[in-house]
Amino acid sequence: MARPWCPDDAYACLSLLLLLLLPAAMATSYSSLCSFPAEAADLVVTAGEHQSIADRLNLPLPSDGYFSGGDKLLFASDDHRLPRSFSFFTRRAARTTDPAITHLVATVTLSGYRFFGGRSWRTNVSAHSVSFDLEGYYSNDSASAALCMVGSGSRARDDGLGVVIIPDVALRLRLPRPATLTRPFVTGRLEGPDFGAVTLVAYAEGDYKYGEAASCPTPPGAVRSESKVFDGNFTCDRLGALLRGSYTMEYAEGRAPSGFPLRQRHRSMHISEIYCGENGAVRAYMVFDFDDASSDAILLGIHEAPWRRGFQADGDEALVADGFWKPSQGRLCLRACRTVRSTVRESDCGIRIHFWFPAVWSIQQRSFVAGMIRNTRSDDDGDTNKMSGAISVSRTGFRGDLSDIKYHYTRVEDAKNYYHSNPELSKERNGRFPGNYSYRDFAFSLYMTTHGGYGYASPVTLGSAMVDGGTLTADDAFSRHAVAEMIKQRLLSVSYEFDIHLYRRVNSSRAWNVSRVPDRWRVSAEGVYDTKSGTLCMVGCRVINSSSDCQILVTVQLPALGGEDGTGSISSLRKKSDTLFFETLSFAAYGAQPAIEAAQAISRVDTERIMLVTSMTLSCVFLVLQLRHARKNPDALPATSITMLAVLALGYMIPLVVNYEAMFVDDGGSRNRHFIELERGGRRWLELNEFVLRLSTMVAFVLQLRLLLLALSARSTAGASGGGDDRWAAERSTLWICLPLYIAGAILIWIPHIGDGHDHQPLSQMKSAIHVPPPLSDDLLSYAGLILDGFLLPQIVSNAFSASRVNAISPWFYVGGTAIRAAPHAYDGLRARGYVQRWIPSYIDVYAGPRDGLFSVAWDVVIPCGAAALAVLLFFQQRLGGDFLCCVKRRKPGGSYEIVSTSTL
Phi/psi of residue 456, each to 5°? Predict the structure, then answer.
């Protein structure tokens, strides 16, 4: 029988079951909560899983929106820093005997955040949602359609154990039909005796009546052709996909124009809703972000930017707009109105917005979509084409074909002057620097050395080659243009984009609780690249407080390919008294491996995986041979060191329990030959090579455990017959010697990590940012590998105390085991000759990595030599006796040992 479907979240599963049962348990009738419309009998029922039933019935119901209120539902108070939204999902719809009335069953979910540990900004927040199962009627017998539904809801208990039922809930919505620019919203209330009222607002979907076509001025500069922007096939959906997203705002003269209807000066704008109609008709909804919203969201641990909720909160600025795409001019012209508490007044509709796709880029214009927002009512002369006082908006980050865009350098000569004034920049250096192989070699990551933070720098143009945008077109432009230019000249004109996150400290109400909030810097720079020295000298611009600062100098010594890291600095060219002056920011730069080295690294990882599986398989073989040896030699098991077998068993067990989740990876939409599916329809995948490795490790662990149990059983049997007392006494002496050595080594590893400042170094911050394992755990695991490298030590000590000359250990076992432990160090020495480890530890090392043991030039010599010495010593012990070196231990009548010279034997 098929397993019944249920979400992964147990609470969600229980809530779903309750919601399905709620209509039958509703305590309050529909007529007592909804005065309209009158109930009508169902005529036709239409249902379908995950289908928009309302659309098929031509119902302009919202799919999502914003809500305010809900304090008694445990939602945090309304604030732009905490995003909140509601969703409306129609589960069943039916026509009734009245053509103007439709019977609906739907689920409404409120989503947001709640405080825990108090109601303060300095306490933590967590995601919170409440669901309502509702049933009612939609009526479109008037110009403003209405919906009224009743039902019950549920939410999680405060302790997380079970749910709380919320009865007698009523939903009332007013839907504009048709929607217009001045009536763009669906409004309503969700009410219940347990929580009061929650106000709902959504951008209207469905029927829309467009207004008059808006006029807009000619864009400043050339515009890309429609065929290039839309790949030769214009569609309204494609236009919406290009326009939807976040835009950076820039104000002329650093301030908003006089008379502009927006109340505040914002830093960004987000187009969250955009719909298209016939003949290129477009309508949109856009929200403006507060300056401090992103920082506050990060401070609260919310990784979703507030404007991404798709709707304005109380106090937010927002615009509604409609207009038409003009294909002959390659631009979109919109007429917009400012919203005030979900209403639109005609007096707030004097705003004109137009968007276009620039064909020429420069240091201050690098957006694939650009636009202007202006207030026509402030034009005293009535000229609707007036551009003064407009606010510029732009959107970057497009991944596509930008081959038709031309770049206009304007600050290269200034950068050359700074380059020639600093002889250190032109000094030739040893090593290979980014050149004519791949444009990807010019991109680099960075971490700040004067401030906490990190960032990334990517080239926009190299010479006349546009390398921003799509990978294929960038590769083609680089090979056809940049390579030839670098061969002909030493100084190559370049332009870059820097995205930097600088940490600033935010003190909380408690002195010990200090948070770090990133301050994002975006710097556009252009200048020259010295192909001989690998240095960049550029002049940069950044937008700060909605105005541009173009007095910035950026110098970078690019990281050598496969070699040491680079360095760089960002400094202000202004006087210290200037308000835009900032102290020099220094950083270290590390580049991604060149394409050819990346291919070699992938090949190396595959080889190491094969070597790792092979070594573990050989371990299983040697364990089987040791078991066979013990079966043929009854005296072998009692003479085998229990400490040695226990250490080896732990060595096989640790990889099975440490980082078990590494076996699994999220689907992420990609499936390749390395993965096999665990269960049908699941989203978790098991990496095949990890499975083979862990399977062989599990077999080795079982065999080792079997050998340990057999040795314990044989030792116990020998002890019962009176012949195993010497062995147990020798085992105790071995434990007393080996265990303190192991503990002392662990303490020596622990001591360097006790200091408070260890975790506050920039390098540690970057390691945590890229998910490198903590240094202490690496060191302890490496030390555990060192103990396994000397796995023969307990057996040798035990033989010495018992003066045994029993052939307890098979040569296959101790010689093969020694070879397996020494092989990674030999491989590490060979790998170091062809692979230069960068400042980040080689966390891609599968074989001979930090989890396998200690690796360095010294350790790669000492450990194999030491392991070989132990194997040779064991060989002679089993041939000549455990006391062959100098002495033998003779048991006294009282049970203790005395040491006598071998000459007396």
Answer: -150, 140
Residue 119's Cβ-count burial label (10 Å; 0-12, 13-18, 19+) is exposed
What length is written for the chain?
905
Angle of CA points 897, 903, 905, to nearest 5°: 60
Residue 335, pLDDT score: 92
Q: What is the DSSP letter of 526?
A: E
Question: How much is the pTM?
Answer: 0.63
Structure tokens, 247: 């835009």
The whole-chain average pLDDT of the chain stands at 75
Residue 706's nearest CA partner among 718, 717, 694, 698 is 698
Phi (first) and psi of residue 608, to 5 degrees: -65, -35
Domain formed by 406-592, architecture = Beta Barrel (2.40)
Stretch among 221-225, 275-279, 719-723 having the lowest mean pLDDT: 719-723
Angstrom distance (rounded) from CA 399 to CA 368: 10
- CA 362 to chain CA centroid, Å, is 31
Please, which pLDDT band fits residue 238 given cuts at 50, 70 and 90?
confident
- Cβ neighbourhood burial of 180 (10 Å; 0-12, 13-18, 19+): middle
Q: What angle do CA 415, 418, 424 make, to 5 degrees?
A: 120
pLDDT at 778: 59
pLDDT digit string, tens, across residues 272-330: 888 887 778 899 998 887 544 444 444 444 444 433 344 555 556 789 999 998 888 88
Q: What is the mean pLDDT of residues 109-117?
A: 81
- Higher-confidence position of 799 and 331: 331
Q: Which residues pair with 691 in a beta bridge?
A: none
Q: Which amino acid is at 161?
A: L
The closest alpha carbon to 883, from 865, 897, 895, belongs to: 897
Contact yes or no for 696/616 (Cβ under 8 A): yes
Collapsed DSSP state (helix, strand, coil) of residue 715: helix
Residue 267 to residue 248: CA distance in whole angstroms: 6
List the end-to-end C-alpha distance of the chain, in Å, as a whole number: 78
Element (H, E) at 863: helix 857-880
Q: Residue 544: pLDDT above 60? A: yes
Residue 573 CB burial class (10 angstroms; 0-12, 13-18, ≥19): middle
When mean pLDDT is compared across 10-14, 144-148, 801-805, the lowest value belongs to 10-14
Q: Smallest Cα–Cα separation from 693: which of 621, 618, 613, 619?
A: 613
Specify whether the CB–CB gap between 562 and 836 falls below 8 A.
Answer: yes
Max distance between CA atoms of the chain, in angstroms, equals: 122
Give the pLDDT of residue 25.
40
Residues forming CATH 2.40.128 domain(s) in the chain? 406-592
Distance of CA 451 to the CA centre of its chain: 23
Handedness of CA 599, 600, 604, 605 (dihedral sign): negative
CA-CA distance, 413 to 59, in Å (whole number)? Answer: 61
Residue 587's contacts (CB-CB under 8 Å, 6 or more residues apart) are 446, 447, 448, 449, 450, 455, 567, 568, 569, 570
Instruction: Provide CB contacts within 8 A for 778, sequence distance 6+.
Output: 841, 850, 851
Q: Which of 5-14, 323-332, 373-382 has the highest mean pLDDT?
A: 323-332
Which has the closest alpha carbon to 529: 485, 573, 481, 572? 485
Of the candidates 695, 676, 704, the one whose C-alpha atom is nearest the C-alpha of residue 791 is 704
Under 8 Å CB-to-CB from 104, ≥6 apart: which residues?
A: 54, 90, 92, 93, 94, 135, 136, 137, 138, 147, 149
**Average of pLDDT values for 203-207?**
84
Nearest to 540 by CA among 588, 491, 589, 496: 496
Distance CA 249, CA 287 (A): 12
Residue pair 94/133 in contact (Cβ under 8 Å)? The answer is no
